[in-house]
Amino acid sequence: MLARPLFYFVTVLVEVCLVLVHEVFIRQRAAYLEPGFGPPPWLHSVSSTAAFVVAVWASRRARGDERSRFSWALLLLSFATALSAPLLFWSFAHHVVFAIAALCVPACVGALLGVVLHSGWLALGRALRGFDFLAWGTNPFRLLTAGAVLLVSLIGAGSLGMWRGAAGAGMVLAVLAGWAPALLLYLDRVSFGSARLARRASWLALLSASTLLLVSLEFSPLSDYASYTSEVVFAKRTPAGRYVISSGQRNLDLFCDRMLRASSVDDYRFAESFVHPALSLAEHKRRVLLLGSGDGLLEREVLRHASVSELRVVAPDAALAELSATLSWLRTRSARAMSSGKVRLTAAEPTSALLAGVGSFDVILVDLPDPIDYIEGKHYTSYFYRLLASRLAPGGVGVVQATSVSGTPRTFVSIRATLEAAGLRTLAYRAPLPSVGDWGFILFSHRPLTLPRALPDGLRFLTPAALPGLFALPGELASLRGEPSSLHDQRVVSAFEAEQRALFGGAD
Predict the structure, then answer these.
(1) 367 annotated active-site
(2) How many CB atoms lie under 10 A from the CB of residue 446?
(3) What pLDDT score was predicted for residue 414?
């Protein structure tokens, strides 16, 4: 009968260690480091492997009771495992702190895992050999049950997110840490000196892991895993909404209230395509007005032009601008553009800012949300575009993001017709973006526009060779008649809703 509790203990220990290895050394590494932010992934592997090897070597040379060492190492491993995902989640906003955590967490877990496995073999090895554990434990039914439990554990941890997966593994390790002193007493008939203290400390470990599991519901609710197909690595709630950074396929995506704002896979394509044609066509580019954005990526591209002396950013959501100035990932990708002395940030509704009198500008960039409702739709009306025209200096050029050319073509031609109804000359183009598809842009000015020619050096996507293809729009757009949208008849909203239903909710 001694084999039964020993078999259950060892089986659970082996399975939770496999889950631990998957969560800390594979899943967290892939989500946080493989997108290219922080230390290189190979350094994560080296630090964890080196710590494991050194810990096994130190455990072999250590003196004292291996049973006590096994119990306390198991206890500390439960703390380290439960804290691994929250530490990476909270430190992600700060580059240096994150780099330290990204290397120290796997090293700490690897070292403790090495001590647990080595000292556990010493503490339990005699009993395992004495009870012919291998023959007893290789019963096909027991192996099938153990395999099923391991499969369910891995699937459960994967579906509940990294934070809950790590906390769950920490809870199981805490239970094993509390069970270990009693099992060792049961096997050897002699207790070790700190057994009672170790059992009490295991309750603290279980309470800590359970608390982290509950806290995860606030920072990373279960609804995230229905809304985002990739791993959620960071989230922050602001008065303007909830920002989430997800990681998948070696890239990071920024969402605001589940709407994609930026993706490291193609944010440079969008930013270059949006900014440089307008600035290249403008007669002057001293003063630039940017409506929307605030994430620093468009601002980075504007500041490539040395002749820009002032970039006025009017952002309805100042929280995003603050986040881009503090969040290390965005600050790095934007080359700290939001901290430039040329950038002047105003938190205001775009229409109110234009009416308040912000002067005239050589270039106007309009990156406002899609016309999903009448609140956003007012930024796609002839009234709003006349306000833009009044702020555009002679010889100036503006550009608006005009939704998808392929997914919402009627919306695209409606936006262009509305700009022209406001008395502006237009020139349309598109850019293929892997994250959202073939995206449309419309240049506008008081004068006729030609194909841009002079582009700044160092661009990754927008090159003189690529420009003609971007301005060659699909032929089917020529057959679509755009209907201008007014403040009291927002036809662009109706067109966008109908096309969205056709794309995602069935035909209208």
Answers:
(1) yes
(2) 15
(3) 94
